[in-house]
Specification:
Layout lengths: L6 H20 L15 H4 L7 E9 L7 H17 L8 H4 L4 H17 L5 E7 L3 E9 H31 L3 H14 L10 E3 L2 E3 L1 H15 E4 L5 E3 L6 E10 L2 E2 L4 E5 L9 E4 L5 E7 L9 E6 L11 H8 L6 E8 L3 E10 L2 E2 L4 H12 L3 E2 L8 E15 L2 E14 L5 E14 L2 H28 L1
Parallel strand pairs: 7-14, 15-17, 15-18
Antiparallel strand pairs: 1-3, 2-3, 4-5, 6-8, 8-9, 8-12, 10-11, 10-13, 13-14, 15-16, 18-19, 19-20
Helix pairs in contact: 6-7, 6-8, 7-8, 10-11
Length: 465
């Protein structure tokens, strides 16, 4: 009888033996199957409670994580350790005093907690246990050492923040607004890891909450900025070609403030983004206003201070924006009066070289202007613009029993004062097709009438206003 092990079975046993040895060798010691020879330590079944140490215990399955079970267990132990360290947001903290939305607050606290996890050091391995299917590790961190190191780091951050604060105050006194914002924001963000804690700082005048002091200074900067100067209203008319520049000045506590961005908005006939204007060394800035939409009622030039532009490039923009989002700044509205021009409309309309019976195109233009609330002058002496239409039709032959006419027209718009041509439009070959030439001519005039009302008038007004 052959009692030798089949070749495939022998390979399987050899493989299992090598895997078992690999698990054993990974931890550097042989593993006992019998727990009487490898008993579970007490810290696995009865979690230690210590006033001197933070505790972290983690485990991993060698079955589900055969390649990195030890790394997984250690990471779980660190996470467990961090749970005992994390500080919940207390009542009298800077973060609680901010009027930020709940989602931002929760995300910010989560980020701080993650940072805390990543910075945990100086812990020690207090125990380790494993068998063929499990791996456990027990970490502990000395509370006194941890809090001493954390306080040293926090004290350093507080000193840095106070240095930024003092320099920011000096910049504010000289109305150097960009520098003051830069320094105050750097001071606040130097303390960002401690915003969910109660932080006190001792100064020459007493104990203060430094973040609140810095933020109050930011609020004072925002409310102290003013948009001064400039005319109380804007009038756009033919005399200024419907273009005006509003001249303003940014002031802080009565002093010119350079380097501050002012955002301007006004109703335009075309889409336009809000424009930005940077104040010069004297705090002055200029806002060009043109192409104002005449269809909008209550037209105004709206000016506002743009604090976002003062955020330093090296800071977390999302957090800095949330801080500035609660600050109140001045806005100013300048009324805009649009003096619509008056038109005197004349035409010379012909059919086949002879004067036409009616004034189809002249009436179309007058109707189109009236519908858009533009004034019609009764004489050339009363108008702002003189509009002349010249048109004529010619015979174009016949086609499949129909008569064809071709219409050409020319529109010229001039200023009454100076005679400058501000708009001109010419077109030829507008086709009319009917049972006789007169009807075909009327058809061509009808088509041109619609073109003038729906397209040409808008193009003309865009050129003028």
């Amino acid at each position: 009888m052959n009692t030798s092990i089949p070749r495939c079975a022998g390979l399987l046993l050899a493989t299992m033996f090598m895997v078992s040895m690999a698990f054993s060798c990974k931890t550097g010691k042989p593993l006992a199957e019998d727990e009487s020879l490898n008993p579970r330590p007490d810290w696995m079944t009865n979690r230690p409670v210590s006033g001197a140490y933070f505790i972290g215990i983690g485990s991993a399955s060698k079955t589900t994580q055969p390649l990195d079970f030890d790394d997984v267990a250690r990471k779980n132990a660190l996470n467990d350790l961090a749970q005992g360290i994390r500080v919940r947001v207390q009542g009298n903290t800077f973060l609680n005093s901010l009027e930020v939305n709940k989602a931002f607050s929760e995300e910010f606290i989560s980020n701080i907690s993650t940072t805390t996890d990543e910075e945990i050091t100086d812990f020690e391995v207090a125990g380790q246990w494993e068998n063929k299917s499990e791996f456990w590790v027990y970490y502990r961190l000395n509370k006194a050492q941890y809090y001493a190191a954390k306080q040293a780091k926090k004290d350093q951050a507080m000193r840095a923040a106070n240095d930024f604060y003092q320099k920011g105050s000096a910049a504010e006194q000289s109305a150097d607004i960009p520098s003051a914002f830069d320094l105050y924001l750097h001071g606040l963000l130097a303390l960002r890891d401690y915003w969910n804690e109660v932080n006190e700082f001792t100064t020459d005048t007493g104990v203060v909450f430094l973040e609140n002091e810095i933020y109050a200074s930011l609020q004072g900067l925002a409310t102290g900025l003013r948009i001064g100067g400039g005319s109380p209203s804007l009038v756009l008319s033919v005399e200024n070609s419907y273009v005006q520049s509003w001249q303003g000045q940014v002031l802080y506590e009565g002093k010119p403030a350079r380097g501050v961005t002012v955002t301007s908005r006004f109703p335009s006939r075309r889409f336009r983004k809000p424009a930005q204007h940077l104040s010069d060394t004297d705090g002055r800035f200029s806002v060009p206003v043109s192409d104002v939409d005449p269809a909008v009622s209550g037209k105004t030039l709206r000016l506002s201070i743009d604090l976002e532009s003062l955020i330093p490039a090296d800071l977390d923009r999302k957090i800095a924006s949330a801080l500035l989002g609660n600050l109140r700044t001045e806005t100013r509205e300048i009324p805009i009066t649009l003096m619509l021009p008056a038109f005197y409309v004349q035409s010379s309309e012909k059919n086949f070289g002879q004067p036409a019976a009616g004034a189809v195109l002249q009436n179309a233009v007058r109707e189109g202007l009236s519908e858009k609330s533009y004034r019609l002058a009764s004489s050339a002496a009363e108008c702002d613009f003189f509009l002349l239409i010249e048109s004529n039709t010619t015979q174009g032959g016949t086609s499949q029993g129909f008569f064809v006419t071709l219409l050409e027209y020319n529109i010229t718009v001039k200023r009454r004062v100076g005679g400058e041509v501000v708009f001109q439009k010419a077109e030829t070959g507008v086709k009319g097709l009917q049972l006789n030439y007169d009807a075909a001519s009327a058809e061509a005039y009808k088509k041109t009438r619609e073109t003038l009302k729906n397209e040409v008038i808008d193009a003309m007004l865009a050129a003028i206003l």
